Amino acid sequence: MQKKDFLPAVFSGRVVQGRKIGRKLGYPTANLAPTKDMPDIPYGVYAGWTSFEEKHYPSMMSFGLAETVGAKDVSFEVCLLGYEGDLYGKDLVVEITVFLREMKKFNSLEELALAIKEDENQARQLLFSNLAKKILDQGYLMSLATQDDGGLWVSDLVYVYDDDFTVYWLSRQDARHSQAILQNPQAAAAITVESTIRGNDAGFQIAGKAEKLEGDMFEIAVKQRIKRGKEPPVKGEKILGKGESWYCLKPEKMEIIYKPYFGFEKQELKLQSPSIDKQS
Ligand SMILES: Cc1cc2nc3c(=O)[nH]c(=O)nc-3n(C[C@H](O)[C@H](O)[C@H](O)COP(=O)(O)O)c2cc1C
To answer: Residue range 201-210: average pLDDT?
Structure first.
């Protein structure tokens, strides 16, 4: 899976009657009667977000000929994850953000259902991790909670992150939170993206194990300097000041808050299994 130039693409349309085979598969779909200004995208299976009546749902879409069920016409179908209800006659706005795979002719409905199950896993993982990245890219400070013999302590730190959502920061070794981590690695952090537009708040919460890292962590240092608006270091440059170290928090649990989509209902971001292809 590589990044596609034609994405994201937005469709809108009214839900019309389908063949109703989707229900049998365990994946009811909304068949869209596309409007004239439907973007020109290749046939395939995609993931994205569907909006209607001011609600937003993670979704997967199939666009093309459903040959497995003997379809003769091209259809555009949307499966809203977590939505149960009748969508006939509703106007949906569909934002397609990720290409998952080509449409295929399967030998049986069972095989198709298995493939769609895998599409669902991928769609959830990619959509939520892309959303988390969007939030982490906008945030600047992270409030890190640690615990030592004196009790709980919270520190605000400039963070950077990697593809596995491990967060990194640079601190003095004698700072209270740095000392606390040596005693008790269990830590939690919250990143908040405040918006001046009411209702657009977003955040990311993470709990896991923190640790002190050895060495300069050059790639991480480059990211951190750029984030702070400074010149990135050059190879061989001394990165750590006296008494400083890199630290990281590896996630065991992650939650996303994204008010425009989910109100204050938190969404859990599952830890990525190594078999799932990573994609932006
Ligand atoms: C995520 C997703 C992937 C799909 N992939 C395929 C596919 O590879 N080949 C195919 O023939 N149909 C595919 N379909 C279409 C299904 O065959 C279709 O949804 C089903 O026949 C139900 O259609 P109906 O509810 O309009 O009757 C896919 C549907 C979804 C939601």
So the answer is: 96
